[in-house]
Amino acid sequence: MLEALGGTSEEARTYADAIVDQIKSQDKADLKGWIVDIRDNGGENMFPMLGAIGSILGEGILGYFQTPDGNRVEWIYLDGEVKVDGITNFRLPDPYTLLKEGSPKVAVLTNGASGSSGEAVVIAFRGRPNTKSFGTATCGRPTSNVGYPLSNNSTLFLTVGFMVDRNGNVYEESILPDEIITDNDLMLEVAKEWLRML
Fold first, then answer.
1. pTM higher than 0.85 for the full model?
2. Which domain holds residue 20?
3. Residue 1: inside a domain, yes or no?
């Protein structure tokens, strides 16, 4: 399960390292595929999440932020780094490469508590080959937010744009999975069965 993440840069590194260690421990040359569980991931910091699962996502453009004037700023994963508009937002010091070459099958699980940066992960998998999502619609907050410091030392966060997938589809509200399944146990079984299919 890919949990929500806030906190310091040190906590982000610990979080990503733990996810990478899980991937390493479960990786096999004959693995059928991966399940990326984003249920109940309410967001916070999307960049360590994307970096942690970069070996499964694959390298290249993962999505974009779209501003109100229609401009798009890309986010990419490349060699352990997650970059936005060419600027590194997160870096794995020792990125992992899956044992099986190519683009593995990935089942993505979502529910109504998958929100914000959790939805960014969902969007990063949209348009990726060999990928299918299962579950229920996400929370509906696929937004780009900017913090503005105030004179009383608090910060005002404003939504300044929406997220866009690698194929150019804009997301302004809840994201529907490819296959709607409301029962959690059944969702997992159906995802596993899909991964087993040739």
1. yes
2. 9-196
3. no
Rounded distance between C-alpha atoms, residue 178 and residue 180, angstroms: 7
CB atoms within 10 A of CB 6: 12
Please state, in angstroms and rounded to a whole number, the distance separating the CA atoms of residues 15 and 77. 17
Q: Looking at residue 112, which CATH number applies to its domain?
A: 3.90.226
Within-domain flag for 2: no
71 lies in some domain: yes
Tally of domains within the chain: 1
pLDDT in tens, the chain (198 residues): 888 887 788 999 999 999 999 999 999 999 999 999 999 999 889 999 999 999 999 999 999 999 888 999 999 999 999 999 999 999 998 999 999 988 999 999 999 999 999 999 999 999 999 999 999 999 999 988 778 889 999 888 788 889 999 999 999 999 999 999 999 999 999 999 999 996
